[in-house]
Write a structure and sequence with these properties.
about 150 residues; 4 helices; about 85% helix
Length: about 150
């Protein structure tokens, strides 16, 4: 049975080779069509990307796609520089904010200390006025100091 099959294959060898060559040709044809479709799709996408970047894919004097590549490279460079400048500006703004916050905190601390000192001075002057039963210049100055008023200098 195997001998019979081998004998028939030998007799039809040219037809078997023809079938193999036809199958390889069909496979190559399908692959070529896929490659052409992929190429056309890539060219279409490149044209869309160039149009989005305000460039021309088929520019006149340069190779096809070169003007677009230059435009996209310029846009990428612009974005990188803009990001760098934005980061530097943000860092400077944060540093300025921190400096103002520190100044405000110090001013608030000094104001709180002054208010506490004025309140203590007022309590002391009030105690003296009660003891002596006399409201004098010291007591009036303490009241003015609590109110934030100071004697002329």
């Amino acid at each position: 049975m195997i001998r019979l099959l081998v004998a028939r294959l030998r007799a039809e060898a040219s037809f078997v080779v023809l079938l193999a060559v036809a199958a390889a040709g069909a496979w190559l044809y399908v692959e070529l069509r896929r490659t052409a479709a992929d190429r056309d799709d890539l060219l279409h996408r490149a044209a869309l990307i160039c149009a989005s970047a305000s460039g021309d894919f088929a520019a006149g004097k340069l190779k096809r796609g070169e003007a677009c590549r230059l435009k996209v490279a310029a846009l990428a460079d612009f974005k990188a520089r803009t990001d760098q400048i934005t980061a530097a500006t943000l860092a400077q703004t944060l540093a300025d904010h921190d400096a103002r916050q520190l100044t405000d905190n110090n001013a608030a601390r000094r104001a709180a200390e002054a208010a506490r000192d004025a309140a203590q001075r007022m309590e002391s002057a009030d105690a003296q006025a009660d003891r002596r039963n006399l409201v004098d210049r010291e007591w009036t100055a303490a009241v003015n100091h609590v109110a934030g008023l100071h004697a002329p200098r």
